[in-house]
Specification:
The chain is an alpha/beta fold. The protein folds into 2 domains: 2-36 and 113-296, QueA-like (3-Layer(aba) Sandwich), CATH 3.40.1780; 40-108, Thrombin, subunit H (Beta Barrel). The protein has 7 helices and 19 strands. The chain has a 9-stranded mixed sheet with strand order 2-1-19-18-14-3-12-13-17. Strands 5-6-7-10-9-8 form a 6-stranded antiparallel sheet, with no helix packed on it. Strand 15 and strand 16 (225-226) form a beta hairpin.
Length: 297
């Protein structure tokens, strides 16, 4: 775990098990308890790959498909003998499909690992690509900063949970030359009354992952206090941005041109973050989903 001290602009290197030593009395660690849905499926003949993004109704889904040329309007494929038909092709290439019966992802679905890993998921990923505190099913990607925690480490620190169901849009790179033109896909979130109360009472809030930052930034407040709520957010955080509810950030090392890296740069300063990444490369830190992390103080 790399430690970034914003005030002194200095960097140090530690082990993740030392996290508690950087916390003070009154600090609260906030984690995202979303659970990844094994929503990657292949047609029975293996010719078409589906990633089920969002359930629109009974046996009706929004999907990504590969290859797209095989799945145009009215094209069909079978999964577990259920017939899937393309009803609509959306402007961004996603498909709306209807199935002759609902699909049981938990029985036969595959974990949707990030494409840059260059491999399909295996039995080990079913537990490795899920946090130990995962609870609310609905994500298409793991909140990877939370993967570092064991039950033992979590038991040693004051914490609470919020939920943001991570979608594929979080990981899509920013291609626009003008950052203001980039659009995030809406993602569902929720904050319980217990979590809202703990966050409001905390001396400092330690956000575990960029998804928690986005929840707390998007959440509605009354009289300056966070309130229990459910909703959706497409908030895109980029410099300059005033962080009102997050004091420390624990995050992994992210892909170039990603909205996640842009958020981290808004929190710690672009030049400081780039210097930290250069040092991480020199020190052979592991990057991305199954990689190491940084704690920004």
């Amino acid at each position: 775990m790399m430690i970034l001290h914003r005030e002194s602009q200095t960097i140090e290197h530690c082990q993740f098990c030392e996290l508690k030593h950087f916390l003070r009395s009154g600090d609260l660690v906030v984690l995202n308890d979303t659970r990844v849905l094994p929503a990657r499926r292949f047609s029975d003949d293996g010719a078409v790959e589906f990633l089920f993004l969002e359930k629109l109704g009974v046996a009706r889904w929004k999907c990504l498909v590969k290859p797209g040329r095989k799945m145009r309007i009215d094209a069909t494929a079978k999964i577990d003998q259920a017939i899937l038909r393309v009803d609509e092709v959306l402007p961004d290439g996603e498909r709306v499909v209807s199935a002759s019966e609902d699909l049981d992802f938990h029985a036969t679905g595959l974990m949707p690992l990030p494409p840059y890993l260059g491999r399909g998921s295996d039995a080990e990923d079913e537990t490795r690509y899920q946090t130990v505190f995962a609870h609310s099913t609905g994500a298409l990607a793991a909140p990877t900063a939370g993967l570092h925690f064991t039950e033992e480490i979590l038991a040693e620190i004051p914490h609470t949970f919020v939920t943001l169901h991570v979608g594929v849009g979080t990981f899509r790179p920013v291609h626009s030359e003008n950052i203001l033109e980039h659009r995030m896909h809406p993602e569902r979130f929720s904050i319980s009354s217990e979590a809202a109360e703990k966050i409001n009472e905390a001396r400092r809030v330690v956000a575990v992952g960029t998804t928690v930052v986005r929840v707390l930034a998007a959440a509605q407040r009354e009289n300056g206090k966070l309130v229990a709520q459910t909703g959706t957010t497409d908030i895109f955080i980029y410099p300059p941005y005033e962080f009102r509810c997050v004091d420390l950030l624990l995050t992994n090392f992210h892909l170039p041109k990603s909205t996640l890296l842009i958020l981290v740069s808004a929190f710690a300063g672009r030049e400081f973050v780039l210097r930290a990444y250069r040092e991480a490369i020199r020190e052979r830190y592991r990057f991305f989903s199954y990689g190491d992390c940084m704690l920004i103080l």
